[in-house]
Write a structure and sequence with these properties.
Blueprint: E1 4-8, E2 17-19, E3 33-38, E4 41-52, E5 66-67, H1 76-88, H2 93-100, E6 116-121, H3 123-131, H4 136-145, E7 150-151, H5 152-158, H6 162-171, E8 175-180, H7 196-206, E9 213-219, H8 225-238, E10 242-246, H9 253-264, E11 268-271, H10 277-289, E12 294-297, E13 309-314, H11 332-343, E14 346-351, H12 356-363, E15 367-372, E16 383-388, H13 400-411, E17 415-419, E18 428-431, E19 448-450, E20 455-457, E21 464-465, E22 479-482, H14 486-496, E23 502-505, H15 513-525, E24 530-534, E25 547-552, H16 556-560, H17 566-578, E26 589-594, H18 600-608, H19 610-623, E27 631-639, H20 642-654, E28 663-675, E29 678-687, H21 690-704, E30 714-719
The structure holds adenosine-5'-diphosphate and zinc ion (2 copies).
One zinc ion binds at residues 431, 433-434, 436, 471, 473-474, 476.
């Protein structure tokens, strides 16, 4: 058999590429990188197989230029998982491999050394900390380093903006900079005695260490899930094994990193997309060498090599951020389960509001359910009240009931959160004389009014325009903002409560992550009244002990949406936001403003809670044969000309195998038929049986790129799409 290499190259094509081995090459193994000629240039690829029968004549094969790794960079398990993933998500195999490798390792350069830049306290620094002679960021940095030297990834995660403080302290001789290769933190905090429920969860999962089993840990925020993770990671470490902990976004990481480090006494590798590429590659390599024991990361960290794997944990498993929405459209939670099976280790999915997919997996007996029902420290669940907006005089969308509750809260010296999942001042700018409203010319969707930026902004394509002084249609001067965004609520609340700080927390006010952290730190530290206005950024697990009122200003868009996942999302969001109220000793209160106080989903959530509402939603999905009881693949296409989109989708439809037995919806316009000036369309394919769906679509997907219309559109396939 000729010694031909089959190579995955980072290109969006459904194929692998065959090459002759490099002139100086023997003993090449799958998982190693090679430099190959490609097109007019060169590319770094991953050897997927060796000794293959070439797909084209031997005479046509080019020779690979150079082997880049003596030993495979990707081990057999990762290679197997990646092949599975490319196959399952109908992705280009090369893109799957490219996703698994940090950018710095996709270049033809020697591997970086494993050492990480790290910072530690000097003796003078310890004295300065004890004497309390420093303030602000410098003090925070000294305090962080008191638990042991910290690598830059940990520092980035715990103290955004730490570098400026480090430079100051370095100049003063209070800290020093070095390089480390081994784990060297000190455990400084003991575990609390676990509750019976926590202990049972730990024992159950621990009973399956060393073999694959999926668990769903169902417990609201504050119920002690993280303590369960910590106890299990401790056991895994004691066996000399590695633990991977995935979180949906890095904003959740700082508190978690700190907790892991203080409790486990090991370095925590943090892997996320904001990390400098070199650091990310080093962290990945330390995991590969087995030196990194605890890896905390966002979506792409699911590809971290785990040669001594012991446990995989996915926190907030219901979160949509685990789904990659471009390029290789994998789902990190689902891939985590697949990896755990390949690695032969348990996987623990945690959430206070589990996805319907995971609940269905429990029902089918594939996952084992674990529950944390009591909140530790006897924290009472918040009381929830629906406020009927219909009969009330609203002030900028805020009812007298809501305003009174905010007033009572701040009068007690406590903090209130007013939640509205809409940025900007108002979602629509309307002419009262003729009904004209400002639309994005590239999306045909209303522009959001941003008063502070004095602009109309499209939230779909970022188109900006000035605010017209008069109506462009009729010339009237009465242009009125319709509806409320966080900016307007902030303004209304600041006017109403002039003596209380009003803080707005959304993507606009917190473009920089350190700004966000600083805002939150201020609220955590000071037991002073404050009013927070924010979007879902605030719904995530930030522990604000003095926050006792959560007022949800509006949810009606979610109730009226046609998206079949809207009910699930709304229920999750409401429960998560409500969970912000009353985390510490003080009881919490939740108000929910709506024009639909009798909506069955709201009623059920309120009277019976998330689990019951989720069961109901799941029953509806079963009845309508929707996911997770059916399986979907979505073909999307977009182009500047509608005819190109329609043409390609028609060709794709015609190319489906005969007797495919699938349900087909479309070709049809996408829910947003025009976006950023591009016409969009889609074709939805569905089957009750996943195997049938994949069997029919595999050969079809491979053909799509060769359809004559494919060159005139941008197209993509999305398996298990989460937004249609
Ligand atoms: P979750 O991850 O579910 O939000 P955490 O594990 O963060 O919950 O726990 C919430 C709070 O309760 C934390 O402050 C934690 O330290 C505390 N806690 C959790 N379990 C216990 C326990 N068994 N005893 C005392 N305090 C606990
Ligand atoms: Zn007008
Ligand atoms: Zn737009």
């Amino acid at each position: 058999m000729p010694a031909v290499l089959r190579v995955a190259l980072p290109v969006p094509l459904p194929t692998l590429f065959d090459y002759l081995p490099p002139a100086a090459g023997g003993g090449i193994r799958p998982g190693s990188r090679v430099l190959v000629p490609f097109g007019r240039g060169k590319a770094v690829g991953v050897v997927v197989a060796t000794g293959v029968e070439p797909a084209v004549g031997m005479g046509k094969l080019k020779r690979a230029l150079r082997l880049l790794d003596e030993a495979p960079l990707l081990d057999a398990e990762l290679m197997q998982t990646l092949a599975w993933a490319a196959d399952y998500w109908l992705g280009a195999p090369g893109e799957a491999y490219a996703n698994a490798l940090p950018l710095a390792l996709r270049e033809a350069k020697p591997l970086p050394t494993l050492g990480e830049e790290c910072w530690s306290l000097t003796i003078a620094g310890r004295s300065a900390l004890d004497a309390g002679s420093r303030r602000g960021a410098s003090r925070s940095l000294l305090a962080e380093l008191a638990t042991g030297p910290l690598g830059v990834a940990e520092l980035d995660a715990c103290l955004p903006g730490w570098r400026a403080a480090a430079r100051r302290l370095l100049g003063a001789g209070l800290v020093e900079r070095g390089e480390r290769t081994v784990s060297n933190a000190i455990a400084t905090r003991a575990a609390p005695p676990l509750s019976a429920e926590q202990q049972q969860a730990v024992d159950t999962v621990a009973g399956d260490l060393g073999r694959y089993q999926s668990f769903l840990l169902d417990g609201v925020t504050g119920s002690g899930k993280t303590e369960v993770y910590l106890a299990l990671i401790e056991r895994v470490l004691a066996q000399g094994r590695q633990a991977l902990l995935l979180v949906p976004e890095i904003g959740l990481a700082p508190q978690t990193v700190r907790r892991l480090r203080e409790r486990l006494g090991v370095t925590v590798e943090v892997i996320h997309s904001n990390l400098a590429e070199g650091e990310r590659a080093r962290a990945w390599l330390r995991a590969r060498s087995g030196e990194a024991k605890v890896i905390l990361g966002t979506r792409s960290a699911v590809f971290t090599p785990l040669p001594h794997a012991g446990l995989v944990i996915v926190d907030e498993e219901h979160d949509g951020a685990y789904k990659q929405q471009e390029g290789f459209r994998y789902h990190a939670r689902d891939l985590a389960v697949v990896r755990a099976r390949a690695l032969g280790v348990p996987v623990l999915l945690g959430s206070g509001t589990p996805s319907l997919e995971s609940l269905a997996n429990v029902e089918a007996g594939r996952y084992r359910a674990l529950h944390l029902r009591a909140r530790p420290g006897a924290v009472r669940p918040p009381t929830v009240q629906i406020v009927d907006m219909r009969a009330q005089r609203l002030e900028h969308g805020l009812s007298p009931t809501l305003l009174a509750a905010v007033a009572e809260t701040v009068a007690r010296g406590e903090q209130a959160l007013v939640f509205r999942n809409r940025r900007g001042y108002a979602p629509v700018l309307l002419c009262h004389a003729c009904g004209w409203h400002a639309d994005c010319p590239r999306c045909e969707h209303p522009l959001t009014l941003h008063a502070g930026r004095r602009a109309l902004v499209c939230h779909h394509c970022d188109y900006h325009s000035r605010i017209p002084a008069t109506c462009p249609a009729c010339g009237a001067t009465e242009l009125k903002p319709q509806g409320q965004g966080t900016e307007r609520l902030e303004e209304a609340l600041a006017a109403r409560f002039p003596d209380v700080p009003v803080l707005r927390i959304d993507r606009e006010t917190t473009r920089r992550r350190d700004a966000f952290e600083q805002l939150l730190d201020k609220l955590r530290d000071e037991a002073k009244p404050a009013i927070l206005v924010g979007t879902q950024m605030l719904a995530k697990g930030h522990d604000l002990p003095n926050l006792t009122l959560v007022a949800i200003a509006g949810v009606d868009e979610g109730l009226l949406s046609v998206d079949f996942r809207a009910g699930e999302r709304l229920a999750q969001q409401l429960v998560q936001v409500a969970g912000r109220a009353g985390r510490a000793a003080k009881p919490g209160r939740v108000l929910l403003q709506t024009h639909h106080p009798d909506h069955p989903l709201l009623r059920q959530l309120l009277t019976q809670g998330y689990a019951a509402a989720a069961q109901n939603l799941l029953a509806e999905r079963r009845q309508s044969a929707l996911p997770p009881f059916a399986h979907q693949v979505l073909l999307r296409a977009e182009a500047t000309q509608r005819v190109a989109v329609d043409g390609f989708l028609a060709e794709a439809c015609a190319a489906l195998p005969p007797d495919h037995g699938l349900q087909i919806a479309g070709p049809m316009p996408a829910p947003m038929p025009l976006r950023a000036g591009r016409q969009r369309g889609q074709l939805l394919l569905e089957a009750a049986n996943r195997r049938e769906l994949h069997a029919a679509l595999h050969p079809w997907a491979a053909q799509l790129a060769r359809l004559p219309g494919a060159r005139k559109v941008r197209w993509s396939l999305d398996v298990d799409p989460i937004d249609l």
